[in-house]
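Worked Example 4.2. Consider the chain below.
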Amino acid sequence: AYGTGNKPIITGLQTLTGLTWAQDGSSTRWYASLASNPWVLLVDSEMGIAKTSASAVLTDYDFYYDGTGQKLYVGGTTSPTSRTLQRSTLGNNINTNGQSHLVIRGLDLRGGGWENLEISNSPADITVDSISSSYSYRDGVNSHYSGHVTDGITITNSTLSMLSVSGVAIGQAKNILVAGNTIYSYALNDAIDYANGVQIGDAISVARLMTGVTIQGNEIYYGGQVRGVQISTGYHGEGIHTDTVGVGAIICRNKVHDLGNPGIIAIHPEIPTQEDIYDNVVYNISGVCLGATTWGANAMDHAQFFNNTAHNCGVGIEIQGPYPPISGGV
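Applying the procedure from the previous section yields the following structure tokens:
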């Protein structure tokens, strides 16, 4: 930002006007013609919840776009003409597009029709600090570009919220620091997988280059939840999820709470890995508070859990290794 005051805003949101609304036989569902997918829909400045069919649109904030019939369906007992609807009109609000040595600081990113911030094709040294990122169709900050490994991604002191998929999602990089962020109300589109507060790694072959991962001092809560309603369940909307991160990963001093999904999960497929998970506080979790799972021939060569606090969980600490049994030290 420039000087003091509010963060400069980059937004893809645009108010929908001039639509003619009708009901389709349901007292709680309205539709109007719309030529293109809105991707994101805000209803009176509140995040709308994308549904997979028109019949699933039943309550306020539900919406569905029928691409074949070019119709937008919105839930509610009163006509949407009395409400303010906003849609996304951009792809990525910011795309690094192959550039290195960038600092992105003090911005408010809203309503990306894809990612709010996409780190793509950047060889090295991307710093993201003190941003707000909200209301995107996918992630708050993303670096998953196929075939390119970024050496050095730092994401700190940022607030990432009201997101359809993950707060932070990094699939192909090394020397990663995710620290001091507040992440909440993510994984709000249950049809999109790999949706977690912090998602590091995606089990693809290049992920074995993801060494030097540190996730520390973040607060993560309300995964898959918005307005007190749990939308995502099971292994979807976890707090922190690492998948094939390689040697030297540290997950420490995070506070993860109030999830209908697991808190911190480390998955170890394909290659020897090493993770130290310590000094985390995890509570009010319906499933597993802390867990590690093997998946592959050389999985879980080294994992340490120590000095963590887990309470009010479905399971406190779960270690499982069916593919194959755990072969290394835990």
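Confidence is low (pLDDT under 50) at residues 203-207. The chain has no helices and 35 strands. Compare this with Example 4.1 before moving on.
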